Structures are given as structure tokens and as C-alpha cells.
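U., I forgot to send this yesterday:
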Amino acid sequence: MKRATPRVGRARLLRLADYLEKTVAPQLNGLKFDMGCWGEWETKKDEPPRSIQEAKECGFAGCAVGHAILAPALFPGLRRAVETSGCDVSISVDDVAEYFGLDGEDAMMVFLPGAYRSPDGDRRADIPLSAVVTRIRQVAAEMGG
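Result:
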């Protein structure tokens, strides 16, 4: 995957923040948002689900990138980096970093659960969606562009 320019990467990050806030959050309806899960589901096909509704039907927990993969019209090219094997779905942090024009450290700070801490200081996976959106917007602002 070719690394996005800072301008393109910033636009993609802001689009992701908007998508998570305006589209994903209202559809979760109590389903746990889990930054520790890139995407796990059981489908008859060896590929990710095509919509949030289809993902929810098979127990999708998801993360920021997992939800972006469900919106290929908003995030063209990202889905091509996904590898599937049965119920396991993965995408490398390097591919995510390149897609959003980030260095590896910034990509991990935004997209990996270990970078988030609970109020008592423990690392956590069940991060509030609003905290993820805030972090995405902060990193985008630092990119300029």
C-alpha cells in the first residue's frame, strides 16, 4: 500500500472520526466497542461483513479500523489490505499507518488498545468510542495539511 500524503491522511482521519461519531455510534445500540478486536465474526463467506448490520448479526465487536473496513465507499483501498482466514480477519498496523499517512508510533497511539488507559491507569480494550474519536481528531490536527 502506498503511504498517503499528510493532506490525504488528515482528510481520511477526519472522515473516520466523523463516520464513527455520526454513523457507527448510533447503530451500536449497546454493542460493545472494542479496540482490542480488529474484527471477528462468523460468516459463511471467507470475507468481512459488508455492513454494520451484517456485522452485528454475527456478534461483531469491532474497532475503529474494523468499522472503516465496513465503509469501502468512504475508505477506498483499505479493504484490499485485509487478510481473512475463516473467522479471523486482520490488517497490519503498517498498512493502517500507510493508509492514514501516519508513522508507526502515531498509528499505534490511535488504533491499538494498549495506548488507551482506564481512569485507574490500566490499559484497556473497551475504550469509549468518544475517546477514540477525540484521539483521531488530535492526531489529525497535529498532521496539518
